[in-house]
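Document type: protein sequence-to-structure record

Subject area: structural biology

Format: plain text, a pair of labelled lines:
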Amino acid sequence: MLASIAGARRRLSLESYIFADDEIGWRFAEALARRAREGVEVRLHLDAAGWLVWGSMRLARFLRASPVRVRWFHRWSWREPLRYNRRNHRKLLVADSACAYVGGFNIHRESSAEAFGEQRWCDSHVRMQGALALQAQCLFDAFWAGHSRWSPEYTATPSSTLIPTPSRGCRNRMRRVYGKLIGGARRVIRVTTPYFVPDHYMQRALAAAAARGVEVYVLVPAKGDVALAAWAARASYAGLLANGVRIFEYQPRMLHAKILQADESWAAVGTANLDYRSLLLNHELTVLTRDAGLCAALCRQFEENLDAAREVTLPHWRRRAWNRRLAEWVGWAARRWL
């Protein structure tokens, strides 16, 4: 992404939930400011809640002093306090409307092998060109202009398109897309998500797929970065395991990729977790694709990650300690706010 920023000649558009005050955040801030000083139009759209945790006044002053145009999505308002809970969770970079990136990577050191070493988060980002990049630019422009529910009326290519959620016609569009992918699978479903807190609709869809003979795999991190979210995730394990869904916990490091694959022919990869917040509340952006090359690459990635995971079995899960059960209850009670 830094290479695309350095190579841009006309326009750069960047959205990120996290833009941290660390060595990676500063590298991006300085790269964006440099291009802006050289005449490139640079717009940076950040989430106010994400900035509150990972940003800083020093970094904000640097960005504001540069020619970069910066906006924070849903800053705190005493008049509309509840809007603060609806976050811009999208991670999108578009360079010259010709090249775009979308996926799970935030702008922080945890996403950098150079800065974080072997424990760098395991994540997925898709690089797009042509019609998909142009569609990404249109989505950024609409969101920047305040039309947060705008969505294109067309597919970018015959095999791939970008899906924003919520959209003008459907508040929970990504949830419905996931439901259709799961319901249409005939052989195998592969789910990769760092925050697995499926609502009852998604739990029923996964269980129904397993009941009709589809192999259903769910890959989650063994140790997440948000303890409460991990507790909420495990609250759904018992019911899914009892219905034939296979759950695996990735061991080596934090798993942050957000992918759902139906057979080898369809995949959704982007910023949406399989949880209440992503599917029902936050602003997200996902590539829906049946591109054979991309689907095959995602399948290979899943199998590699699965080799480094440990399966959770129902007999073992039923023997877990009472304090873990209590933590799951607490997490599930807070599931809509995670």
Summary: The CA atoms of residues 231 and 326 lie 9 Å apart.
